[in-house]
Every structure is written in C-alpha cells, then in structure tokens.
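Next up, sample data:
>
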Amino acid sequence: MPNREQYYKILKEYWGFDEFRPLQLDIITSVGSGESALALMPTGGGKSLTFQVPALAAEGICIVVSPLIALMKDQVENLKARGIKAAAIYSGMSHEQILTTLDNCEYGDFKFLYVSPERLKTDLFVNRIKLLNVSMIAVDEAHCISQWGYDFRPSYLQIADLLDILPKDIPVLALTATATPVVVDDIQEKLRFEQKRVFKKSFERTNLNYVVRHTDSKLEQVIKILNNVKGSSIVYVRSRLQTKEISDFLNRRGIIADFFHAGLSSEDKNKKQDGWKRGEIRVIVATNAFGMGIDKPDVRTVIHIELPDSLEAYFQEAGRAGRDEKTAYAILLYSKIDGVKLKRRVSDNFPTIEFISKVYQNLANYFTLAVGFGFEACYAFSLSDFCSVCHLPLNQTYSALKILELSGYIELTEELDNPSVLQFVTTREDLYLFRSQNPDLDILIEVLLRSYTGLFAQKIHINEDIIAKRLNTSRNNVYENLIKLDKMGIVSYIPFKKTPLLIYTQNRVDNKDLVIPKSVYDERKQRYIKQIEAVLEYAEDTDICLNLKLLNYFGESIDKPCGICSICRQKCSKSLKIKQISVIENKIIEELKVSPRTIEDLNKRLNFKTENIVLAVRKLIDEERIYQNSLMLLEFKY
C-alpha cells in the first residue's frame, strides 16, 4: 500500500508542487488505502489531483467517468504533457479508434482511461473492461448521478453496472463541486458505498465578493463594472443570440470581447477559449456551455446578466472567478422582470403530459417508425428542423425530449462531430445479385466489406477519406455513391454531421401506453420550483448576507456574515456615520496619491477596522474615484 512519502514524490515529480492543498492528501490517503469516498470541493479546488496521484501510486489503470468530451480531451492532453499515459473513449469515435484505445490500455501500461457514461453500456466496452487491471474508479461531476440534483443524467446510473463487472474491492472516488445534503446521500447510495465517507471542503470563498445589483440598465452596469475592475471576465447569458449581441456591444465600447456557445464548431470553440486564456480577449460572453474544465486562475469578474435555474448552477459558474485566491467579484444583475421570466421557465421545462405525448408521436412520424419497432435505432437529429416540420415550439419540445429520455424511451446526445455510419440493409444473397447488375458500384462495395467487419449486423462508423484513398478517387465521389446505395435500399448511410443523435432505447410504444413516471415529472417539477424560489430569494432578499445564503443552501451551518458581499456592505454603510466614511475615504485617497497600493497595504497603514476600509474602497470604486489596475493595485483616478 502506498504511503504519504510516495504521494509527495509523485506530486513533485509530475506537478512540481511541494505541498498538497487542504483536504487533498486526506482524500488521496483514503482512496489509496482502498476506501470509497465522496469529495466535495469547490470549483478550482484541485479535485483532479485527488484521483490522479493515488492512481499513479497504484498498479493498474484508473477509469474516470466524465460527462463532457471537451473536459476529457483537456484532461488527457494535460496528463500526456506531464509524461503520463492517458486515453479517452467517447461518443463519436469510430469502432477502430475505440478498439485501438482499449488495446493500448490493456497492453500499453496506460494509467488513465476517461470514459463518457454513455459508453459504459456498450458490449465492446463491457467485454474489454473485464480484461483491464483496474485500480480505481473516479466519477467526476458526481451530482449527475442523483435525480435530486440540478443536472441529473440517466446515463450516470450505468456506473452501477460497471461496478457489477469489476472486483468488489476497487475503490470509487466521487467528485463534485456542488451538492446539497440530499444529493450527497443519494450519490453514495447510487454508487453503493458500504460506508458513508465524505470529505468536504467549506464552500466559502473568502476572496470572492458576491454582489446582487438591482438595475434595469444591465449593459451599462456591465460597462461600469468592467471599467472599475480590470482583468479577465466571463459574462453569462441564456441565449446564443445574446452572446454575439453583447460581445459586439462591448467591442463597440472599447472592451475586447468574444462570444461562445454550444452551437459553434470545435475549431471555433478552441480558438475562442485559447484567445481568452492567453489574455488576448478580455471578456468572453457565453451561455452555460462555457467554463467546465477550463482552468484560468485570474478571472476577476463573473457577471450574470440573467438568473440561473438553480443556486447550484450559479455557485459553480460564479466560482470560476478568483481561483488564484486574489480578490474577485461574482455579480448578479437583476430586474423585476427577471423574476417573471424565471417563473415562466417552469412551463417551458415541464410542458404538459399531453404535449410530451404529442412530441413522442411526432418523432415516430418524423422517422416513419411503426409501433413495436425502433429499439437501438439511431438517427442524426436536428431539433430546429424537427420543430419546423412538426410545427412545435422549440424550448418546450426540447424539454419534452429530455423527459422522454429520463423516462427511458430515447437518448439524446450532446452536439458532436459524429462520424459517418453505415449498415447493409439487404441480404448477402440480394447483395451478390445487385453487385453483378451494378458493376460501377461493385468495387466500392468490395472495399467496404474488406475494410469493415459486422456491416450486416449493426451500424458501423466509417471514414470516407480512407475509402477514397483505397479507391484512388475523391471523397465527394465516395459520398455520392454511398448516397446512391442508400436511396436504392442497399445500405443505411448517415453521413458525417455535427449534430446530436437521437437513439431509441426501447421499441416505439403506442401513445396510450406511454408512461411518464412521477419521479421524472411531478417530483422533479416540485424540486425545480423550490430551486427557482431559492434563486429568487438570493436575488430579491436585501437583508441576509449573500455568502450565508449560499453556504446554508449547501448545508453549512454558519451564521457569521461575510462582511464583503453587497448586502453586508450596504448594511455597514448604513451603520457608519457619513463623517467617518468620509474620513476613511480621504485617508485612502491621500495614500493613493503617493503610490498605488493593495487593500492589504491600506489595512496596514491606516488605523481603521478592515471591514470599514474595504467598504470605503468599494464605495470609491463605485463612484469611479479610484480603480483597480491589471496588477490588482488600487490607483487614484482624479
């Protein structure tokens, strides 16, 4: 069994650190001794090291279940850069790519295999995982396994099936940044922990100033904030259209900005992320598709222009500010109309059962699928086209599809670069006859049969470039001939597309037999209503410390106000006499006229209470009499 000295040696050798962060070593020691555990650590708290270090100290390979392909790729590349063998398997890889990856893991002394939860149920993965010497399982974003959580994903429940086929003594480390007490218990139950073992780092971020600002002029407030607090920023919005509009607005006002959302190509996403990481772009305006797994420590402000659906989501997104532990701001801009919009999301997220049934029927019509057929049928799926053809509202239709997914009827994947898929749908005898009658297509069919196995039994990922090379022709020629074979009923061919896939997870049922469980609809709807009520309380209540609201929501019994959030500052401002504030402000300005200083410098040089100095600094910044430069130094403005 590894000891602490080995863990320190690994930390130094691969990451160059001499010391672990608080709680990291406790988690590493626990899982390294074979104990399953749940680790609750805030965003940026160093969760990855808690499974990477013990896995490197153990014999065998660590299986890491992760929900986002971009996050998996990023982690794998980071490990490779440190000289650590790591690989990933996810939706969109060809059969050959998956086989090669699994071969490498079995024979190539790999230490980490990242897997999307959807891959866990495939026969290929199940059969090959039994041959690997698995040392531990890490479950990232573990709140996704809980139906009580804000981001429940049914595919995460398949992790229990993985536990069934591996030795019982393999430890499981579940990791999440956001979980309420109910979710904490549910995660451990779903992952079959024999003993409850939770390592919890306080959710409190002492360097992060939470601010709620009531305003009807949100874009002007964004400009004001960005002018007063220098440095990198994320502005979160809800719609893809807004990302571009607000990014353009900021650029017109002299602030270098770019936009980001899930509909961009992988190339565009990477280009925008890299530009922002390097500091070439100061502000990224994004939907909630941005941020997961992106490690940028010096984000000074995270601004929400609209209300999130839950405090869990808000805490995770806001927590991307100030990971370097320097002063940072999480700002929520709120107007009364936002509360009305948020309540309206209940009907968008939970359309009527009758509407859900209508969407299910329209799916069958859209794909011409009869009752009793369709199990494991896989279709490239455009939500916008489906809604246009069937005359359905976009948001409610998407929610209906997710409810059908939770109910076990379909699976809807995230938008991916999906490789082409092909299957022969004729018999071998009829194919032989067809080839003799169509010599112009015979050589293409011959290359397909020689290049891929199992084409008569199942849909197989193919690569038109490889086929074109073997035929000494163009990719477009291969594409056109495959389309021709599809129209003639010889093959089923789905060309490469950047689109979600819709998969039937059971045969289509008659609509009168469609069952939406209470746990999927009624109970989730009530939880969602409670979540948005908590968000509204956070935004509207002007009496309770914002930090306390968040900590209490996540089960931390703390009753001491933070002293730095917007509510605490407002209360402190009211309790201080105007003359006293004025005296402190004047002293601060005198100091800054001599030289730029940090808040810590002012605290040492001025004989006032720290919270009063902080309050005066915030007031001077709000009044634009002083500002914070890119080096985090306060400067006199005029």
DSSP finds 26 helices and 23 strands in the chain. The chain has a mean pLDDT of 89. The longest helix spans residues 522-540.
